[in-house]
Design goal:
Keywords: ATP-binding, Ligase, Nucleotide-binding, Purine biosynthesis. Homodimer. Pfam families: ATP-grasp, PurK_C, RS_preATP-grasp-like. By secondary structure, this protein is α+β, with helices and mostly antiparallel strands. The chain is 29% helix and 29% strand. Strands 9, 10, 11, 12, 13, 14, 15, 16 and 17 form a nine-stranded antiparallel β-sheet that branches. A hairpin with a 5-residue loop joins strand 9 and strand 10. The structure holds adenosine-5'-triphosphate (ATP) and magnesium ion (2 copies).
């Protein structure tokens, strides 16, 4: 059988490895940090920094196709890997999603609506961006942000100096604050043959910048539901994308606004493990290996709840809850804000 190379050994890499194994593939993780949660399920693990080119080359040579759980892979590493084996999703999806400024410009180029935004290279640019966009607004680092990290809210112009002091030193973007009623996401997939399949949109609730729950079905009208799917398909086709993509959307009375995209399996797609015959992890493996895609149809309603930090204390109770499927990541040290697992509550139909 073939071997899937997965860059990143966090929980997403772990669940991709499990899905690969179920389809008869081996998986080999390349982890640039330490102690990957995926280490105990993958067939092989390489732990090395991205600038260890010999290790990268050996990893690429040992696998048949390369994918990733994490979009912030340095360009030089990608150049090297791409010279050895195909990488899916491809370079363009990574380039665009690594930088919020590039991403928003790309989305607007597809005639999709985003929050108003401005590049903020220095403090005077922040003043003029605030004058143009108004408050409330959010100052964000262009790169490397996740779980709401690297963001400062500017409720009134008086907050701008503090926001600048907090984030200066990184390339920044200012975004106008969207007055949304709720947040949804579409987990979509595109195969090597260009076919597209979407899962039903899920409704997402965040706390302290971190995803807490995803519930399907989301509260959406039929036309909003089809808009959400069409938006995802437009992005997939524009990128000639192969694999699973997450698209985060704000729901407003004026329509759907695209918040951000993630070129990988997505936390808000974990409900598919217990709501669909083919979940997002299997769908991703199918896409990158040239299988036909699963149809994405949903057999059950689900509420996915992330288990973050101390939430693990609730395990004894959760283990007894009816129709609650536990997914634990095998992480040993509990830290506040750390994603330790999730539970899919299958809802009575
Ligand atoms: P993720 O962990 O999803 O990658 P992230 O750190 O990249 O998150 P965003 O998705 O940009 O951050 O923002 C996190 C949350 O903050 C959003 O889900 C939303 O609730 C809120 N938020 C972000 N940008 C805006 C905005 N322009 N207007 C209103 N709310 C926003
Ligand atoms: Mg993000
Ligand atoms: Mg987000």
């Amino acid at each position: 059988g073939s071997t899937i190379g997965i860059i990143g050994g966090g929980q997403l890499g772990r669940m991709l490895s499990v899905a690969a194994a179920r389809l008869g593939y081996r998986s080999h993780i390349f982890e640039p940090g330490t102690l990957p949660p995926a280490g105990d399920v993958a067939h092989a693990v390489t732990t090395a920094p991205y600038d260890d080119h010999a290790a990268l080359r050996a990893f690429a040579g040992a696998v048949d196709v390369i994918t990733y759980e994490f979009e912030n892979i340095p360009t030089e590493a990608l150049d090297l890997l791409e010279g050895v084996r195909p990488i899916h999703p491809g370079r363009e999806a990574l380039r665009i999603s690594q930088d919020r400024l590039t991403e928003k410009a790309f989305l607007q180029g597809l005639s999709l609506t985003t929050a108003p935004f401005a590049d903020v290279p220095d403090e005077s640019a922040l003043e003029s961006a605030l004058a143009e966009i108004g408050t409330p607004a959010i100052l964000k680092t262009r790169r490397f942000g996740y779980d709401g990290k690297g963001q400062a809210r500017i409720m009134s112009p008086a907050d701008s100096a503090a926001a600048w002091a907090d984030l200066q030193g990184s390339a920044l973007i200012l975004e106008g604050f969207i007055d949304f009623s709720h947040e949804v996401s579409v987990i979509a997939a595109r195969g090597l043959d260009g076919s597209v399949a979407c899962f039903d949109p899920g409704e997402n609730v965040h706390r302290d910048g971190i995803l807490r729950t995803t519930t399907v079905p989301a509260r959406l009208s039929p036309s909003q539901r089809s808009d959400a799917v069409l938006i995802a398909a437009r992005i997939l086709n524009a990128l000639d994308y192969v694999g699973v993509l997450g698209v985060e959307l704000f729901v407003t009375p004026k329509g759907l606004i695209v918040n951000e995209i993630a070129p990988r399996v997505h936390n808000s797609g974990h409900w598919t493990q217990n709501g669909c015959a083919v979940d997002q992890f299997e769908q991703h493996i199918r896409a990158i290996t040239g299988w036909p895609l699963g149809d994405g149809g949903r057999h059950s309603d689900v509420r996915m709840e992330n288990l973050i930090g101390d939430d693990l204390d609730r395990l004894p109770e959760l283990a007894k809850a009816p129709h609650a499927a536990l997914h634990l990541y095998g992480k040993t040290d509990v830290k506040p804000g750390r994603k330790m697992g999730h539970v899919n509550h299958v809802l009575p139909g």
